[in-house]
């Protein structure tokens, strides 16, 4: 089941465009943050981010989710 923590984490990662920066902003360990995003992606059945090295871009699914999560 999707949680508020997962959605808040997704929004922060989308804004920061970085897992590590979002982890600092949320005061979370990066593995915890990554786990939340992975669980959310698994539940939704789609990737939310395209990962390019250390840079992230929202996928089509991520773009669709962001306004609802905010």
Describe this structure in words.
The protein is mostly helical. Helix content is 66%, strand content 11%. It has a two-stranded antiparallel sheet with strand order 1-2. Helix 1 packs across helix 2 and helix 1 packs across helix 3. The radius of gyration is 11 Å and the shape is globular. The mean pLDDT is 95.
Q: What topology does this entry show?
A:
Layout: H1 4-16, H2 19-26, H3 30-44, E1 49-52, E2 55-58, H4 60-69
Helix pairs in contact: 1-2, 1-3, 2-3
Strand content: 5-15%
Class inferred from helices and paired strands: mainly alpha
Alpha-carbon Rg, integer: 11 Å
> End-to-end span in angstroms?
18 Å
Widest beta sheet: strand line-up: 1-2
Query: DSSP helix count?
Result: 4
Query: How many individual β-strands?
Result: 2
What is the helix/strand order?
HHHEEH
> What is the approximate shape?
globular
| Biggest sheet layout | 2 strands, antiparallel
Mean pLDDT: 95
Please mark out the parts with pLDDT under 50 across 5 or more consecutive residues, or reply none: none
Share of helix among residues? 55-70%
Descriptors:
mainly alpha; 2 strands; globular; two-stranded antiparallel ribbon; 4 helices; single chain; 70 residues; 66% helix
Quick gist of this model?
This protein is mainly alpha-helical.
């Amino acid at each position: 089941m999707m949680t508020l923590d997962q959605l808040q984490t997704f929004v922060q990662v989308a804004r920061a465009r970085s897992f590590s920066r979002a982890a600092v902003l949320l005061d979370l360990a990066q593995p915890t943050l990554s786990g939340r995003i992975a669980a959310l992606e698994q539940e939704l059945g789609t990737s939310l981010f395209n990962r390019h090295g250390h840079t992230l871009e929202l996928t089509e699914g991520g773009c669709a989710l962001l306004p609802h999560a905010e």
